[in-house]
Amino acid sequence: MITVHSILEQHANVPIFEKEMLLAFSTRHSREFIMSHPNEEILKRQARAYARLLKKREAGWSVAHILGKKEFFELNFFVNKHTLIPRPETELLVWLALKRLESTDGRRLTTVIDVGTGSGCISIAIARSMRKSGIYEHIDFFGIDTSRPALRVAKKNAALHDTHITFLHGNLLEPITNKQAATGNENLLITANLPYLTQEQFDEEPSIHREPLSALVAKEGGLFFYKRLLKQLRQIMVDRTPSTVTLFMEIDPSQSRMLSHISTSIFPNAAVATHKDLAGHDRVVEILIDATPTKVLSLAE
């Protein structure tokens, strides 16, 4: 007889928690059930289904891709081959955005834009968390991506979590500059988890080779898209005149100094700060821009 215990003892090269998740999916039980019932019988058809999933895992597919879902910010999200798998370190973007929104003047319209939205997890997590706040009704949420298949996943996730987010197809902030979304005389908050790995970094990390290359790798030391984003934002400041702009950009730790330097060269009067992740690595560069020339900026606000 095949039991939970006996089947999990096999394939020692796969982490036990991953095998538990795959077996739970194959048997339509929860992982908690699998962990607490080692003597539960596994039917032959369930064992075959589990073997197929395990084969995909050993071929380099992540558990999230195999199961088609991933938890982020305590919410479950649909993912597939067209989307980046949400990482725990990206939750820092959400926390920082929420902190900034909580300090926002609730009487003024706020536009939140997630650039390179992918599965939509960042904007959806922010929207869900802001629901009970007094300024939620004054916030417009947008998600932008160049991938139409990824946007379909994002819309599915937004429906799953009952969040109203307008998803736009386009390159970085182009849908905004093209007036598909209104900005002007409001607070503008932008989150961006754009491709920031170099080709060398991608090649050295086999675990991400099944994810879309276009969502991971960028030229110019991984900063190509962030440079374009900053230049587009500068044009928005000229054309649309938002009251304040806060931009959060996720980075590789090695890029913090260079991106901070680029940011201040494009926005000399901006306040720039770097935030560390839980591992103590530089992970997010924040830029605060105020359209009021006489106002003294402080990221402590």
UniProtKB/TrEMBL annotation:
Residue ranges constituting the Methyltransferase domain according to the UniProt record: 110-179
UniProt-listed SUPFAM superfamilies: S-adenosyl-L-methionine-dependent methyltransferases (SSF53335)
Domain of life: Bacteria
Alphabetically ordered keywords of this record: Methyltransferase, S-adenosyl-L-methionine, Transferase
CDD domains, per the entry: AdoMet_MTases
Molecular-function annotations in GO: protein methyltransferase activity
Designated gene of the protein: prmC
Release factor glutamine methyltransferase N-terminal domain mapped to chain residues: 8-68
Swiss-Prot/TrEMBL GO biological process terms: methylation
Name used for this protein in its record: Peptide chain release factor N(5)-glutamine methyltransferase
Annotated InterPro entries: HemK-like (IPR004556), Methyltranfer_dom (IPR025714), N5-glutamine_MTase (IPR050320), PrmC_N (IPR040758), RF_methyltr_PrmC (IPR019874), SAM-dependent_MTases_sf (IPR029063)
